[in-house]
Amino acid sequence: MAEIVLDKVTKRYPDGALAVSDMDIEIADGEFVILVGPSGCGKSTALNMIAGLEDISSGELRIDGQRANEKAPKDRDIAMVFQSYALYPHMSVRENMAFPLRLAKVDDATVKQKVEEAAEILDLTQHLDRRPSNLSGGQRQRVAMGRAIVRSPKAFLMDEPLSNLDAKLRGQMRTSVSKLQKQLGTTTVYVTHDQTEAMTLGDRVVVLRGGIVQQIGSPQFLYDHPANLFVAGFIGSPSMNFVPATLEEGVLKSPLGTITLTDRVRRLAEAADAPREVVAGIRPEHFEDAALVEETHRASGATFTAPVDVLESMGAEKYAYFTVEEELATTAELQELAADAGATDVPGGGSTIVTRLSASSEAREGQQLQVWFDADRIQLFDPSSGRNLTYSG
Amino acid sequence: MAVTTGRKARWALIDVVVVVYALFPVLWIASLSFKTKETLADGNFIPREWTLQNYADIFATNEFIRPLINSLGIATIATLIAVVLGMMAAYAIARLDFPGKKALIGVSLLIAMFPQISLVTPLFNIESALGLFDTWPGLILPYITFALPLAIYTLSAFFREIPWELEKAAKMDGATPGQAFWRVIAPLAAPGVFTTAILVFIFCWNDFVFAISLTSTEASRTVPAALSFFTGTSQFEDPTGTISAAAVVITVPIVLFVLFFQRRIVAGLTSGAVKG
Ligand SMILES: Nc1ncnc2c1ncn2[C@@H]1O[C@H](COP(=O)(O)OP(=O)(O)O)[C@@H](O)[C@H]1O
Ligand SMILES: [Mg+2]
């Protein structure tokens, strides 16, 4: 068990690429921390620096209060699960899992007992004498986990451990990883580019962009109070809708209509010295079919009417997609998010608003629908810096 | 069905032609080695009179046994040293970025392309001056030089195929760099090491140019060179039978070597290391 502190940790690769800059994270003993961000944002680099596989260019890494920058990986007592699993192909499952114990010169009886215990936990007992090449993806993944847990290390590091599994298996393994971590109570740093994994697994989530920490907090906190446009767009699925708007005297003019801000939002925006031109963000789940909103409640929000482009019925809810005439807000952050999601710009201007409606909504594709949204859940962002103007953390 | 049978027949025919073409000289020599002196030149492929006398003769004299010992010793030592040095160099080339890496690759390529015959005279002079002429080291040293590029190339191709992450995983599991190399990387590179060892061994074993020019007595003369000095038991005897027998004897170890390690060479040991 260990407490891991990154104090202004920076990594500059020999070719000059700045992969991680001034990273400050304090990971408490037994905590499950997720590093999340789009591909290439420096997650693996950060993890490898904690592991000792990459040198730290500047700053300090402390494990249990002791400087660990210069320690060799083997002296850090940290186990790692790799994206590719990195199982030793010339060894059986048993030998793979026993390898760390053998290196630590543990006696044969203890090795056998520990390997069998771990195999029991991970449901690998009947595969112990097989070779990794004969196992399925999920089984290999469990062997990699087994190799990490046998020697009860101070901490686990996992680099996208589930990304090579198919969607269904990934869901199952996500639950088991979470259970396993709770059961063992070992400090864990988990890297993923998948915001769903980040939201469901971690005690705390660190959002990274371009090697810079954007925000650190519990999944719910990041969802409710994103510090900037990037975090707001990255956390949550489907992601937040962003529209350009002008703010004047507490009234917001946007492609979704003219909205009178609630007192709470207005005060926050004033305190943050909001500029005239802003980006307004609303999550899909804060929309509702206006017909289903009670009269008394309606006043606290605003409505707009538009034809439904596409309607997806998920059973428990419905997703309705609308097109707004104006270009949606574009900033560097949003472009990066869009690029990461694999989206390409839709030609001909106008963009899509995603809304989540109750299953009982009578919305039809191609027909006009009046949609209500909660004005109190609107978040405003500074288009130049991306800062959240309604942040109340 | 008809198509596949026709195809099979065609391939079988091509295979037979290739194998016969490649093996015919070898089989002819084998056949000669079993013939008696009287039937040696009768032109029959299958000996009419079988004899093992040629084999008995070559093993009865120091003319063959001593060179055989030289060949075995020199080729084995040169192979061992070349493979160990080659492993280190190849590992460095495949894994590390160090100043002068390109130069190292370039120079080893240069050596591999250098015509050996052009070095015979200078080597002779150098070795005479150093007292290495007609000694084991006198052959081992040039063999290592010319085998190293081959070893480095073959081995670095194998090292490059071993996933980098396995070594990182070993480090995380508590291995020192040495342990990671010997317990994870080396076993995975084993097929490459064996392949390289065989190639280098064959190179040393078959060499004639250095063997004939850098030796003068049985102290270090290897079999290919010694064969050219065969005279038969008496001066007036035709040594064809004994030369053939000797040729068979020095070919057999190579064939056995390759057959023995074939499985290891071919085995795709690295499969299953990463997702796949
Ligand atoms: N060995 C390296 N040399 C130079 N640049 C590197 C190296 N490894 C990664 N990078 C760069 O550092 C940045 C972060 O990489 P990485 O940590 O692998 O990102 P992630 O794991 O978040 O996808 C990327 O821009 C990448 O190109
Ligand atoms: Mg990565």
Automatic annotation (TrEMBL), chain A:
Gene3D superfamilies: 2.40.50.100, Nucleic acid-binding proteins, P-loop containing nucleotide triphosphate hydrolases. SUPFAM superfamilies: MOP-like, P-loop containing nucleoside triphosphate hydrolases. PROSITE patterns: ABC_TRANSPORTER_1 (PS00211), ABC_TRANSPORTER_2 (PS50893). The keyword Membrane applies. GO terms for biological process: carbohydrate transport. GO terms for cellular component: ATP-binding cassette (ABC) transporter complex, substrate-binding subunit-containing. SMART domains: AAA. Signal peptide: none annotated. The keyword Acyltransferase does not apply. It comes from the Bacteria. This is ABC transporter ATP-binding protein. It comes from Prauserella muralis.
TrEMBL record, chain B:
It comes from the Bacteria. Keywords: Cell membrane, Membrane, Transmembrane, Transmembrane helix, Transport. The keyword NAD does not apply. Coiled coil: none annotated. It is found in: Cell membrane. This is Sugar ABC transporter permease. InterPro entries: BP-dep_ABC_trans_perm, MetI-like, MetI-like_sf. GO terms for biological process: transmembrane transport. It is a multi-pass membrane protein. Belongs to the binding-protein-dependent transport system permease family. One of its GO terms (cellular component) is plasma membrane. It comes from Prauserella muralis.
